[in-house]
C-alpha cells in the first residue's frame, strides 16, 4: 500500500510541476509578456512595415507611417515584432536609434522633447548644464537633427504611441518638426504613429498633414470564426519544446477536444460576436486557465462557460442584488416615474410620494419609513451612481428637489428583482404593475 | 556684471584736431589731421589720425567694425565730420556659407582685409569708437591667451580669402592725407626696429604718472581694451614728462593738450602751451620729408606710436565742460570696467591702478602694424575674450595675459609698480616671442620701463633719431631682465579669481549636438525603382523647380532689386501646403547667392525662421539674433538689440534677407512680433528684406490689425495649387530620365492629386508608394518592371480611400449590430443623435430579430466604447453612462453600404 501511495504522491508531484509550467507558459502568452513568433493574420502589414523600416535603417530614407487599428488589435505587437526582426539584421543592429514616446506619458511637447533628448543620449552633449528652456530644447534638438544627413547619421525611429494625443499638443509643434525632418534632407528619421482612431488624419493641422506621407497601415482583423477557433486552440496548446512529451500530448489532446465541444464553441461564438480582438479572448482564457490545478489537469468546458459568465457579467445588476428592500422600493418607484413621465428627470419628493402611495395602497409587508431614512437610502443610491443628478449647480437646490435620472434599464431592474433573495411578493407585483 | 555695463550709454564728443587744409575746393571740404574724441564727463581724449586702425560703431556692441582710417575731412561749417576708411572684416561678418572657404579655424582676433565694393568707404567720423592694434600678416597667431590685438593675414573679396598683398596695405597708407605721420616725435617712440630685421620689436613704455593714470582710468575708455593700448602710450608719455616736471605742470599740459586742436602728444611733451601749434607743424613737415626719404619704416614706427599716444590724451575737466555735445555717442563701459576690475588687485591699493591697464608697450605694436597694416592688436584680443562670455578658459588665460601691459612707475610707489610693470612687459614679450623673431641680440627683449627709459624717450622727442633709441632700448632691456623673473610669480594668483566673476554672467556656450553617425554606410539605391524612389523623396533637392518660373522670377526680381539698392521691403507669399513656396524661395536665394558670388550683386545674408519651429512667437527675435550674430540672449533683450541693429546706421551693413515661414504662428495678441518684423524693413538703415509665408491668402486682412497689415504692404504673391500637368512635369523632372513609370500611370497620379489638393508632396509620396507596390508585386526584386497603372491605382486606394468602410466590415457582429441600432434609432427619432439607452433598446430588439443572445448592458456599453475609440461613433464623456449621447461619425449611407452582406 505504501508503495502505491508513494507512487501516487510522486505522480502528483510531477503533475504539479507540469501544471505549474503550463500555467507559466500560457500566462506569459495571455499577459502579452512575450512576443509571438509571428503575428497572426497581419502578414502583409508586417511585410510593409518591415520593408519600410528596413529602408530607413539601411538606405537612410526618411519615412512616416501610421499604424491604425482598434484597441487590442495588435498594433504594438506588430511593431515590436518588426523591430525585433529588424534588429536581428546585422547591418541594422547598431545603426538605428529607436525613440519610444507615448501620448499618455508625454502629455506636452516639452516633456516629449526632454524624453527624446534623453533617449537619444544627447544630454551628455549638453554636459552638466541643467536642461534649458523649452525653446532652447527645441532649437537644440532641431539643430541636432539638422546636422545629420542621409548617408552618414544614424537613422532615428520615432515611435509615437497614442499618436492622436500628440495631435492635441499646442500648435502640433512636435509633430510638425518630426514630420518636417522626415521630409527634408536632414538626419534620416522614421516617424511611426500608433493610434486607434480612424480619423487621426483629420486631427492633423493642414501643414502637418501635408508633411505626413499618408501611409497608413490598418490593422483590421477580418478573422472568420473558424480562424478564431484555430487561434484559440493554438493559444492554449503547449509549445513543442515542452519537457515531458506525454503530458504535452495529453494536454494538447484535451485542448483539441475542448475546442470541439459544442458548449465551448457557443461560448467562443458569443465572444467572437462581441469582439474579435485577442485581448478580450486572452482575458477569457486566463480565467479558464486559473481553474486548472493538479487535481484537475485540463480545462473543462464548464470552466470556460464560467469564465465567460464572469467576463460578461452585468455589473449594475450585481449592485442591485446588494440593495436593501427600501432602496429597491425607491428604484421601483423611480422606474414607475420614468414610465409615467417618459424619462423626464424626477426629484426625491416625487419618488417619496410614489413610495408612500405604494405603502398606503398595496404594501402589506413593508412598514412606513421616516423621511430621513428614505433620504438616506436615496443618497446611498446616488453614491452608487444608480441615479445621477441632472443639475450642474447642485449647491443651491435643496436635496429633496434636485432633479435626478435613473441610470438603470427596465430589464436590469426586472432581472434583479427575479434574483433578489427573498423579495416580498407585493414589491414584485408593484414592480410588474403598469402604473404605480 | 559685464552685461550690465554694456548697456550703459556714453556720449562722446568729437573735435577736429590739427590745422585744416583745403582738401577739395569745389566741395568745400576740409581735410584734417586728426580727430580728438572724448567722453563727456571724462577727461581723457583719444586722438585718431589717418593711418590708424579704428573701431567703428556697428550693430554689435561687442564687435565693432574695424577699419583703417585713411582720411578725415569735414565741410566748412565743421558740423559734419566724415572719414574715409579701408574696411576690415571680422569672421563673423563674413557670410555664414563662406566661412568654410577659410579652410581652417579662424583665430578669434583675426580680421580680413576687405576688397569688396559693397560697402561705403565714407563714414561718419562720429561713429568712430576708438583705435585698435594690429600685427603684420607674417607673424603667427599668438597663443589663444593673448587678447587685444587684431591680426590680418588674408583679404576677403566677397568670394574668397586671399593672401594679403603687403603692397595693398602700403598703398592704403600711402593714400593717407598729407600729414599722416605727424606724431613723429612721440616721446616714447623708443621701440626700435631696425628696418632690416623688420621683426617686431617689443617695447614697453610704462610711465605712469599717478594723476594721469587715474584720469585715464576714469575716462573709461570706450571700447576700452582696444583703445587701452593707445591710452597707455599716452600715459606713458605723460609720465615721462611727469617724471621730470612737477605735477602742476603736467596738469596744465594735459589741459592744454586737450583743449587745443593741435596734436596733443607733442604739446604735452614739450609743455610749452603757446608754441605747440607751430612746433607740431614743423615737426610734421619734417616728418613728411623724412618719410619721402625712404625712412619709411622708422617713420611709421614713430608715427604709430604717436597715434597711440595721442589717443590716450586725457580730457581736462575744463574741456569736457565747455565742449558742445557734438557727437554724442553712447558707449559701453563694460570693457573698461572689466579691465579695471581685473587689474585692481595687482595695483594693490595704489591709486594708479587704472593706469596699469592702460600702460602697454603699445608703441612697438603700433610700429609693427604701421609697417604692415595687417597686424591685429593684442588689446583687442583681450577685450574680445572678455566679452566672449562662454569661454571661461580663454578668459582665464586672458587674465594672465593682461598683466602684460607694462605698468608705469609712479613716483610714489616705484617699487611695486616697477615690479608689476616688468612683469607685464615680460608677459607681453613672451607673447611676441611666439610670433616673431626677437631682437637681434637674442635677449629676452624684455623692456622694463625705468626712469632711464623715460628720460630717453623724452629725449627722443627732440633728437628724433632712431639709432639712439635703439641703443637705449637695449640697455634698458638688459637691466630689467632680472627683475621680471621675480615678479612673474605674483600675478597668477590674483588673476584667476577675477576671471571667475567675469565669466559667470555669460551664458554657457551650447554644445553642438549631433546624431551619432552610423557604423555601416547607408546603402545606395540598387535598382531603377530604388533610384526612382530616392529621387521622388520629398527631401531630395531637385536640380530645378519646374512650374514655378513666374513666381521664381517675381521673387527673384524683388529680392535682387532690394539687395542692389540696399533698401528693404516685405513680401507676403501664400499658398496651400505643398505648393513649393519655401522651395521656391530657397531656390531664389541659391541663385542670388550664386550671383553675389559672381559679383553681380552685392553680398547679402539669408536668415530663415519658422513659426512652427519655435515655442513662442517671441522666440523669433532670439532666433533671428542668434543667426545674425551668434549671440544667445533672452527674447526681450534680443528684440532690443535687433531694434538697435536695424534702426541705427551702420556703414558696412549688408542686406539681410529674412524668410519667415508659417507667419500665422507669430501671431500674438498685441501682434508686436509681426509689427516689428514688418516695421524694420521700413527703417532707413535697416537694409532688411522680409519674405513671409503662410497658407491663407487673406491672412493680412484676417488676423492683422491695420498698422501691421499696412506695414506688410501690398507686395503679395499667391502660389496656386499645381495643376495635373504641372505635377506631371514635376515628377518627370525629378525622375530625370530614370525610366520607372509608365506615362499613363504618372498622368493618373497627377490628375488624381490635382483634383484633390494639388499638393506636390502628396503626389511624390504616392509615386513612391507605387514603386514599392511594384517592387513587392514582382516575384523577384530585380525583375520588377515599370510602375504600371495597377500599382498606382493600388497606391491611390491606400492613400485616399477612407478606412471607415473597411473598419465597419471588419467589426464584430455586435458592433455592427450596434451601428444598425444607432441608425434605426436615428430614423425613429428623426434626429442625428440619441442616448445610449435608447440605442440599447433598439439593439436588444435587433439582436432578438437576428436570433442572437441579447447582451448585457455592461457589454453593450463596452461595444459602444470600442466603436467610439475608433471614432466610428462620437460619444459624450463616459461618466454619463447610459445617458451619454451617441452620434455617427460616418454617414448613414456609408454604414448601410458597409453592412450590406458582401458574401453574395
TrEMBL record, chain A:
Quick check: keyword Transferase in the entry?
no
What InterPro entries does the record point to? AAA+_ATPase, AAA_16, ORC4, ORC4_C, P-loop_NTPase
Q: Is DNA-binding among this UniProt entry's keywords?
A: yes
Q: Which domain of life is it from?
A: Eukaryota
Keywords in alphabetical order: ATP-binding, DNA replication, DNA-binding, Nucleotide-binding, Nucleus
> What transmembrane ranges does the database entry give?
none
GO MF annotation, one:
ATP binding
Query: Looking at the UniProt record for this protein, which Gene Ontology cellular component terms does it annotate, in alphabetical order?
Result: cytoplasm; nuclear origin of replication recognition complex
Q: Which GO terms describe its biological process?
A: DNA replication initiation
Q: Give a short account of what the protein does.
A: Component of the origin recognition complex (ORC) that binds origins of replication.
Kindly state the subunit structure of this protein.
Component of ORC, a complex composed of at least 6 subunits: ORC1, ORC2, ORC3, ORC4, ORC5 and ORC6. ORC is regulated in a cell-cycle dependent manner. It is sequentially assembled at the exit from anaphase of mitosis and disassembled as cells enter S phase. Interacts with DBF4. Interacts with POLQ.
Name of the featured protein: Origin recognition complex subunit 4
UniProtKB/TrEMBL annotation, chain B:
**A GO molecular-function descriptor:** ATP binding
**Keywords attached to this entry:** ATP-binding, DNA replication, DNA-binding, Magnesium, Metal-binding, Nucleotide-binding, Nucleus, Phosphoprotein
* CDD domains named in the record: Cdc6_C (cd08768)
Chief localization class? nucleus
Which parts of the sequence belong to the BAH domain? 46-167
What's in the GO CC field? nuclear origin of replication recognition complex
UniProt region (Disordered), positions on chain: 193-237, 254-273, 392-416, 440-500
Q: Where in the cell is it found?
A: Nucleus
Annotated Basic and acidic residues bias: 450-462
GO terms of biological process kind: chordate embryonic development; cilium assembly; DNA replication initiation; mitotic DNA replication checkpoint signaling; regulation of multicellular organism growth; response to yeast
Question: Biased composition, Acidic residues: where in the chain?
Answer: 463-474
The protein's matches in PROSITE patterns, at most eight in alphabetical order, are given as: BAH (PS51038)
Recorded superkingdom: Eukaryota
The family classification in the record reads: Belongs to the ORC1 family.
Biological role stated in the UniProt entry = Component of the origin recognition complex (ORC) that binds origins of replication. DNA-binding is ATP-dependent, however specific DNA sequences that define origins of replication have not been identified so far. ORC is required to assemble the pre-replication complex necessary to initiate DNA replication.
| The protein's assembly and partners | Component of ORC, a complex composed of at least 6 subunits: ORC1, ORC2, ORC3, ORC4, ORC5 and ORC6. ORC is regulated in a cell-cycle dependent manner. It is sequentially assembled at the exit from anaphase of mitosis and disassembled as cells enter S phase. Interacts with CDC6 and KAT7/HBO1. Interacts with LRWD1 predominantly during the G1 phase and with less affinity during mitosis, when phosphorylated. ORC is composed of six subunits.
Instruction: Indicate what this protein is called per its UniProt record.
Output: Origin recognition complex subunit 1
Q: Name its species.
A: Oncorhynchus mykiss
Amino acid at each position: 500500500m505504501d508503495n502505491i501511495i508513494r507512487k501516487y504522491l510522486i505522480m502528483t508531484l510531477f503533475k504539479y510541476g507540469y501544471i505549474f509550467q503550463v500555467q507559466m507558459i500560457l500566462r506569459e502568452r495571455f499577459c502579452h509578456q512575450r512576443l509571438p513568433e509571428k503575428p497572426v493574420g497581419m502578414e502583409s502589414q508586417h511585410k510593409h512595415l518591415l520593408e519600410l523600416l528596413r529602408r530607413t535603417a539601411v538606405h537612410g530614407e526618411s519615412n512616416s507611417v501610421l499604424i491604425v487599428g482598434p484597441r487590442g488589435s495588435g498594433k504594438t505587437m506588430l511593431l515590436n515584432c518588426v523591430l525585433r526582426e529588424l534588429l536581428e539584421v546585422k547591418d541594422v543592429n547598431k545603426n538605428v536609434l529607436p525613440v519610444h514616446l507615448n501620448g499618455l506619458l508625454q502629455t506636452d511637447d516639452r516633456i516629449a522633447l526632454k524624453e527624446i533628448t534623453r533617449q537619444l543620449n544627447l544630454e551628455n552633449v549638453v554636459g552638466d548644464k541643467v536642461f534649458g528652456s523649452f525653446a532652447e530644447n527645441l532649437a537644440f534638438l532641431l539643430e541636432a537633427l539638422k546636422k545629420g544627413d542621409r548617408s552618414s547619421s544614424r537613422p532615428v525611429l520615432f515611435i509615437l504611441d497614442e499618436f492622436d494625443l500628440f495631435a492635441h499638443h499646442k500648435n502640433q509643434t512636435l509633430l510638425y518638426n518630426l514630420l518636417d525632418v522626415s521630409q527634408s534632407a536632414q538626419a534620416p528619421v522614421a516617424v511611426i504613429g500608433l493610434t486607434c482612431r480612424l480619423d487621426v488624419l483629420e486631427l492633423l493641422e493642414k501643414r502637418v498633414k501635408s508633411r505626413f506621407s499618408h501611409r497608413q497601415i490598418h490593422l483590421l482583423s477580418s478573422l472568420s470564426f473558424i480562424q478564431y477557433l484555430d487561434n484559440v486552440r493554438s493559444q492554449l496548446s503547449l509549445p513543442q519544446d515542452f519537457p515531458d512529451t506525454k503530458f504535452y500530448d495529453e494536454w494538447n489532446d484535451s485542448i483539441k477536444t475542448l475546442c470541439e465541444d459544442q458548449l465551448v464553441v457557443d461560448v467562443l461564438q458569443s465572444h467572437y460576436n462581441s469582439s474579435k480582438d485577442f485581448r478580450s479572448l486572452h482575458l477569457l482564457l486566463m480565467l479558464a486557465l486559473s481553474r486548472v490545478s493538479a487535481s484537475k489537469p485540463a480545462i473543462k468546458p464548464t470552466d470556460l462557460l464560467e469564465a465567460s459568465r464572469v467576463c460578461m457579467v452585468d455589473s449594475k445588476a450585481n449592485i442591485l442584488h446588494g440593495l436593501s428592500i427600501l432602496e429597491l422600493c425607491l428604484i421601483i418607484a423611480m422606474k414607475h416615474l420614468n414610465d409615467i413621465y417618459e424619462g423626464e428627470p424626477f426629484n426625491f419628493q416625487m419618488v417619496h410620494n410614489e413610495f408612500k402611495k405604494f405603502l398606503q395602497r398595496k404594501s402589506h409587508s413593508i412598514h412606513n419609513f421616516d423621511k430621513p431614512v428614505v433620504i438616506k437610502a436615496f443618497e446611498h443610491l446616488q453614491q452608487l451612481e444608480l441615479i445621477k443628478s441632472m443639475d450642474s449647480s447642485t449647491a443651491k437646490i435643496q436635496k429633496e428637489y434636485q432633479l435626478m435620472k435613473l441610470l438603470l434599464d427596465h430589464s436590469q431592474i426586472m432581472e434583479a428583482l427575479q434574483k433578489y433573495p427573498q423579495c416580498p411578493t407585493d414589491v414584485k407585483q408593484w414592480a410588474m404593475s403598469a402604473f404605480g | 556684471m559685464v552685461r550690465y555695463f554694456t548697456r550703459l550709454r556714453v556720449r562722446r564728443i568729437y573735435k577736429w584736431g590739427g590745422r585744416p587744409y583745403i582738401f577739395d575746393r569745389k566741395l568745400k571740404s576740409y581735410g584734417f589731421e586728426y580727430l580728438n574724441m572724448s567722453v563727456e564727463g571724462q577727461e581723457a581724449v583719444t586722438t585718431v589720425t589717418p593711418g590708424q586702425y579704428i573701431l567703428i560703431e556697428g550693430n554689435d556692441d561687442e564687435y565693432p567694425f574695424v577699419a583703417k582710417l585713411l582720411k578725415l575731412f569735414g565741410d566748412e561749417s565743421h558740423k559734419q565730420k566724415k572719414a574715409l576708411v579701408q574696411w576690415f572684416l571680422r569672421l563673423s561678418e563674413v557670410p555664414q556659407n563662406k566661412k568654410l572657404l577659410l579652410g581652417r579655424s579662424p583665430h578669434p582676433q583675426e580680421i580680413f582685409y576687405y576688397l569688396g565694393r559693397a560697402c561705403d568707404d565714407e563714414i561718419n567720423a562720429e561713429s568712430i569708437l576708438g583705435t585698435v592694434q594690429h600685427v603684420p600678416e607674417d607673424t603667427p597667431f599668438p597663443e589663444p591667451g593673448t587678447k587685444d590685438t587684431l591680426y590680418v593675414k588674408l583679404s576677403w573679396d566677397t568670394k574668397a580669402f586671399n593672401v594679403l598683398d603687403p603692397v595693398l596695405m602700403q598703398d592704403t597708407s600711402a593714400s593717407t592725407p598729407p600729414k599722416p605721420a605727424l606724431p613723429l616725435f612721440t616721446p616714447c617712440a623708443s621701440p626700435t626696429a631696425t628696418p632690416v630685421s623688420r621683426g617686431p620689436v617689443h617695447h614697453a613704455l610704462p610711465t605712469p604718472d599717478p594723476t594721469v593714470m587715474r584720469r585715464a582710468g576714469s575716462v573709461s575708455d570706450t571700447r576700452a581694451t582696444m583703445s587701452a593700448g593707445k591710452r597707455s602710450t599716452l600715459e606713458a608719455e605723460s609720465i615721462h614728462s611727469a617724471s621730470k616736471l612737477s605735477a602742476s605742470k603736467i596738469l596744465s599740459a594735459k589741459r592744454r593738450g586737450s583743449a587745443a586742436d593741435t596734436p596733443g602728444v607733442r604739446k604735452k611733451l614739450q609743455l610749452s602751451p603757446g608754441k605747440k601749434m607751430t612746433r607740431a607743424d614743423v615737426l610734421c613737415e619734417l616728418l613728411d620729408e623724412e618719410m619721402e626719404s625712404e625712412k619709411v619704416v622708422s617713420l611709421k614706427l614713430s608715427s604709430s606710436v604717436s597715434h597711440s599716444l595721442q589717443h590716450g590724451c586725457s580730457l581736462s575737466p575744463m574741456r569736457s565742460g565747455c565742449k558742445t555735445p557734438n557727437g554724442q555717442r553712447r558707449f559701453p563701459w563694460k570693457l573698461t570696467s572689466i579691465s579695471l576690475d581685473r587689474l585692481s588687485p595687482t595695483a594693490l591699493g595704489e591709486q594708479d591702478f587704472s593706469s596699469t591697464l592702460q600702460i602697454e608697450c603699445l608703441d612697438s605694436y603700433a610700429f609693427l602694424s604701421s609697417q604692415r597694416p595687417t597686424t591685429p592688436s593684442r588689446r583687442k584680443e583681450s577685450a574680445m575674450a572678455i566679452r566672449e562670455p562662454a569661454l571661461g578658459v580663454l578668459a582665464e588665460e586672458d587674465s594672465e595675459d593682461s598683466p602684460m601691459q607694462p605698468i608705469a612707475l609712479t613716483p610714489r610707489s616705484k617699487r611695486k609698480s616697477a615690479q608689476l610693470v616688468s612683469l607685464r612687459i615680460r608677459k607681453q614679450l613672451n607673447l611676441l616671442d611666439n610670433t616673431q623673431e626677437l631682437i637681434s641680440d637674442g635677449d629676452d627683449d624684455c623692456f622694463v620701463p625705468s626712469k632711464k627709459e623715460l628720460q630717453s624717450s623724452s629725449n627722443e622727442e627732440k633728437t628724433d633719431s632712431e639709432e639712439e633709441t635703439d641703443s637705449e632700448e637695449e640697455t634698458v632691456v638688459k637691466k630689467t631682465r632680472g627683475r621680471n623673473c621675480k615678479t612673474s610669480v605674483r600675478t597668477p594668483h590674483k588673476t584667476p579669481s577675477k576671471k571667475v566673476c567675469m565669466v559667470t554672467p555669460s551664458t554657457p556656450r551650447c554644445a553642438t549636438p549631433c546624431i551619432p553617425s552610423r557604423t555601416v554606410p547607408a546603402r545606395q539605391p540598387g535598382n531603377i525603382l530604388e533610384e526612382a524612389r530616392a529621387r521622388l523623396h520629398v527631401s531630395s533637392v531637385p536640380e530645378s523647380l519646374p512650374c514655378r518660373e513666374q513666381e521664381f522670377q517675381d521673387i527673384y526680381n524683388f529680392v535682387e532689386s532690394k539687395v542692389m539698392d540696399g533698401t528693404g521691403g516685405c513680401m507676403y507669399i501664400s499658398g496651400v501646403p505643398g505648393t513649393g513656396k519655401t522651395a521656391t524661395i530657397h531656390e531664389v536665394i541659391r541663385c542670388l547667392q550664386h550671383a553675389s558670388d559672381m559679383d553681380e550683386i552685392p553680398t547679402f545674408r539669408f536668415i530663415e525662421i519658422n513659426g512652427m519651429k519655435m515655442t513662442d512667437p517671441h522666440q523669433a527675435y532670439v532666433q533671428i539674433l542668434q543667426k545674425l550674430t551668434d549671440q544667445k540672449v533672452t527674447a526681450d533683450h534680443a528684440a532690443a538689440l535687433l531694434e538697435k541693429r536695424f534702426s541705427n546706421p551702420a556703414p558696412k551693413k549688408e542686406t539681410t534677407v529674412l524668410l519667415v515661414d508659417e507667419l500665422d504662428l507669430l501671431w500674438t495678441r498685441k501682434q508686436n512680433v509681426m509689427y516689428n518684423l514688418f516695421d524694420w524693413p521700413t527703417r532707413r538703415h535697416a537694409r532688411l528684406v522680409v519674405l513671409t509665408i503662410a497658407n491663407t491668402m487673406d491672412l493680412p486682412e484676417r488676423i492683422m490689425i491695420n498698422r501691421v497689415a499696412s506695414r506688410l504692404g501690398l507686395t503679395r504673391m499667391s502660389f496656386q495649387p499645381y495643376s495635373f500637368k504641372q505635377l506631371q512635369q514635376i515628377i518627370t523632372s525629378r525622375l530625370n530620365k530614370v525610366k520607372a513609370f509608365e506615362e499613363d500611370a504618372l498622368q493618373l497620379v497627377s490628375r488624381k492629386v490635382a483634383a484633390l489638393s494639388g499638393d506636390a508632396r502628396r503626389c511624390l509620396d504616392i509615386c513612391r508608394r507605387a514603386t514599392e507596390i511594384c517592387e513587392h508585386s514582382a516575384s523577384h526584386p530585380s525583375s520588377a518592371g515599370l510602375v504600371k497603372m495597377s500599382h498606382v491605382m493600388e497606391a491611390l486606394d491606400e492613400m485616399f480611400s477612407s478606412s471607415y468602410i473597411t473598419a465597419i466590415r471588419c467589426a464584430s457582429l455586435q458592433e455592427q449590430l450596434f451601428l444598425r441600432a444607432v441608425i434605426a434609432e436615428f430614423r425613429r427619432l428623426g434626429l442625428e443623435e440619441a442616448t445610449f439607452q435608447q440605442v440599447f433598446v433598439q439593439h436588444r430588439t435587433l439582436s432578438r430579430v437576428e436570433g442572437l443572445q441579447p447582451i448585457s448592458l455592461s457589454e453593450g456599453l463596452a461595444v459602444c466604447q470600442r466603436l467610439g475609440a475608433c471614432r466610428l461613433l462620437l460619444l459624450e464623456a463616459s461618466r454619463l453612462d447610459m445617458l451619454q449621447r451617441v452620434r455617427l461619425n460616418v454617414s448613414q449611407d456609408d454604414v448601410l453600404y458597409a453592412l450590406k452582406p458582401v458574401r453574395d
